[in-house]
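Researcher: Sequence recovery benchmark, item below. Answer with residues only.
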């Protein structure tokens, strides 16, 4: 009977030892997975990928700097992190003050990059399981400027640009692309990669240019003006009309024979200047034809001359309306 009790006690003791060992293993497994310092990093990355800026901000325990918040949620946020590939959450590395650094390695545009997150142990749950949280921080910003425009596009989202500039709070890691694709003005896209809260970020400077559409529409208005001016000069029979072109002669010109035409229309170049868009001086050629009388011999002979001309204009653009005003000096 005593031997049976001993065997039973031994069995219970072995079972207890196995249970304790299993419990230790389970605690270690949990602390190395769902309760590891890597878990908040995984959850943060998932929030970014889902465009859930509120959750990401709460996990990161970050304050938002002053500026535009358009990049902190939704499509803009998803676009920023969508350019990350081959992401790997690395093993935690100990840091002073009961803290660890968890690296996140990833690739953007073929470059292998790393973001380091600092986390701290905040306590335990159910006695055995560690709890970790990001060390509080402040979000970085991306500065954007644009020449002669009050709007731009950042990560596919239209954004306001008061006085041609703005500052945007952003999450990290991520890539942010600014561009301008307007009807009359555009700027090539430029990108900035944000790898960490303290990593320097180069400003995105948009160099705005007039679109081909604007140049064509301005050129059409210039052509219309010059053709009308030539037609009016022919109608009123003037060698020196109120136009950019004129011809001076000492000979008598027969009324009814004067005819003006444009032989070379000006090329149009539109550039930024002093906060406005200006059309560069317009240079062209015009032809005047008529019958003239030599003032000495009295003989009549043809007048057929090509003259150079140049003039400036004022360009006004309001919405979809373009106004080109010739500026002539006499």
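Model:
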């Amino acid at each position: 009977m005593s031997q049976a009790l001993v065997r039973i006690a031994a069995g219970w003791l072995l079972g207890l030892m196995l249970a304790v060992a299993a419990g230790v293993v389970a605690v270690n497994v949990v602390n190395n997975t769902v309760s590891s310092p890597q878990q908040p990093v995984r959850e943060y990355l998932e929030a970014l990928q889902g465009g859930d800026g509120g959750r990401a901000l709460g996990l990161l325990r970050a304050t938002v700097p002053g500026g535009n918040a358009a990049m902190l949620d939704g499509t803009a946020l998803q676009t920023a992190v969508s350019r990350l590939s081959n992401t790997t959450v690395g093993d935690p590395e100990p840091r002073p003050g009961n803290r660890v650094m968890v690296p996140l390695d990833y690739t953007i545009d073929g470059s292998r990059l790393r973001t380091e997150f600092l986390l701290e142990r905040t306590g335990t749950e159910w006695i055995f399981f560690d709890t970790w949280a990001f060390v509080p921080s402040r979000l970085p910003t991306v500065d954007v400027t644009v020449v002669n425009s009050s709007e731009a596009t950042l990560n596919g989202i239209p954004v306001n640009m008061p006085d041609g500039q703005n500052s945007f709070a952003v999450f990290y890691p991520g890539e942010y692309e600014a561009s301008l694709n307007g009807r009359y003005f555009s700027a090539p896209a430029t990108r900035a990669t944000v790898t960490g809260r303290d990593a320097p970020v180069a400003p995105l400077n948009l160099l705005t240019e007039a679109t081909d559409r604007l140049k064509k529409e301005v050129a059409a208005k210039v052509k219309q003006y010059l053709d009308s001016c030539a037609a009016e000069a022919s109608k009123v029979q003037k060698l020196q009309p109120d136009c950019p072109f004129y011809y001076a002669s000492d000979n008598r010109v027969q009324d009814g024979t004067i005819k003006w035409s444009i032989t070379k229309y000006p090329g149009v170049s539109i550039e930024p200047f002093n906060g406005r868009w200006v059309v560069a001086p317009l240079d062209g050629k015009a032809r005047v034809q008529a019958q003239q009388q030599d003032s000495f011999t009295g003989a009549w002979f043809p007048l057929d001359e090509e003259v150079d001309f140049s003039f400036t204009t004022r360009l006004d653009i309001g919405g979809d309306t373009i106004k080109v005003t010739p500026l002539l000096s006499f």
